[in-house]
C-alpha cells in the first residue's frame, strides 16, 4: 500500500510541478483518481495527505483537494512578508548567507529529526525520488531540491523557520540555478547528501542530521567558490568572472 501511495503522490506532484494542474484548480475526486491509478480510495486519500503535508495541495473537507502554487513557500503564503524581508538579501556575501543557512537549516533539521511524522519522511523521500528522475534535467532537479528543503522546514513544526528559510532561499537562488546546471556529478552529490539527511531524520538523530546539513551547505559554498574561480560561474550579483591576471 505504501509503495502505491508513493507512486500516486509522486505522479500528481510531477503534474503539479509541470503546470498540468494550475494553482487553485481542484484535483479529481478520490474515486476518479482511484480508477486512474488502479488503487483503492484509502490509498488515494493517503497520497493526497502526503501532497498536503508537502505544501502542494490543500484538502478541504467535503470539497476536495486544491492545488497550491509550488513556486511559493508555505511560510511566504501564510505571512506574506518574505518579499519585504528579503529585500536586498541577494546582495549579501555568499559566506554571510551560508552562515545564516547553517543557523536556520541546521536548527530546522534538528527539529525535523525530533518531530517529523511518517508522512513528512515519506514526502522527503518522494522529493528525492523526483530529483533522481530529474538528474539530467537541471531545471526540474532544482525545483524538486527546493521542495525538499521546504518540506524539511514544514517537518520542523515551526512556522517561523518556514518563513526564514524562504527568505534565505531567495538569497541563494542565483547560485542554486548555476550549480545545478554544472556537470551531472554535482547533482548526484546533492542527491546523495539529501538521502543521508533523510536517513538521519528518519532515525530521529538530530545531532547527525545537523552535522550532515552543515556539510551539505559547506559543500555547496565550495562548489560555487571553486567554479567561480575557474570562470565556470559568474561572480555573485551577475558580474562577469574576474580575469585570471587582474590585479
UniProtKB/TrEMBL annotation:
Domain named HTH gntR-type: residues: 2-70
PROSITE patterns (UniProt xref): HTH_GNTR
Organism per entry: Acuticoccus sediminis
Key word Transcription regulation present: yes
CDD domains the record matches: WHTH_GntR (cd07377)
GO molecular function ontology, one term from the record: DNA-binding transcription factor activity
Domain of life, per lineage: Bacteria
Protein's UniProt name: HTH gntR-type domain-containing protein
Keywords, in A-Z order: DNA-binding, Transcription, Transcription regulation
InterPro entries per record: GntR_C, TF_FadR/GntR_C, Tscrpt_reg_HTH_GntR, WH-like_DNA-bd_sf, WH_DNA-bd_sf
